[in-house]
Amino acid sequence: MVPEEPATTERSAGIWDFAETSIEQTVRALQEARVATPQEISQAVARARENHGNQKPSDLLETLARVQGHDEEFLSQAILALGDRLAHTLTPHAPLIPFAGKLMAPSAIYETFDQIHKIARVLLTPVLFAEDTDAIGVGSVNPVAASILAEEIRSTVYKRVGIRTFVTMVRLDYESWAFLTRKHFEL
Fold first, then answer.
1. CA 20 to 30 Å from 122, out of 14, 45, 98, 109?
2. What share of the chain in percent tops pLDDT 70?
3. Are residues 83 and 132 in the same domain?
4. Whole-prediction pTM value?
5. Within 13 Å, how many C-alpha atoms sit on residue 64's CB side?
């Protein structure tokens, strides 16, 4: 009999690969947008990877804003500005939706696709709405993380049920994002 621990650890490691992909793609977007020095990016990456190594989700934009020395009272504005600049490096452009934090948590999609919930948690990118598997919306302060989750949702739903899901991506303001990540992922 093979113990379940290695399989769980292996699956868990795969989940954290999404976090690493998010870091790598976010770094490229940050460099393209020229919103931080190489030293700031390097420090933020090191801190985010340290958190991920401890199984603690961490978003690179929030980490970078803290590395850049923004006080807590100005953190929201700093993250919003970083997200704005990153969004312009991506196609499609993820718009900022200020009311997204008021949407009901789509627990059915998380229950049906447990792996999606785990990936969303690692990426700190909540699913904002789900109309069955036909249309699903995701959001984050980091448009790169939202893009990664959107693509994984499309792939997972298609593999499981053969439906090409329409997935929308939006950006969230920091307060809504912090609220939703606590609510959806119990952080």
1. 98
2. 93
3. no
4. 0.90
5. 29
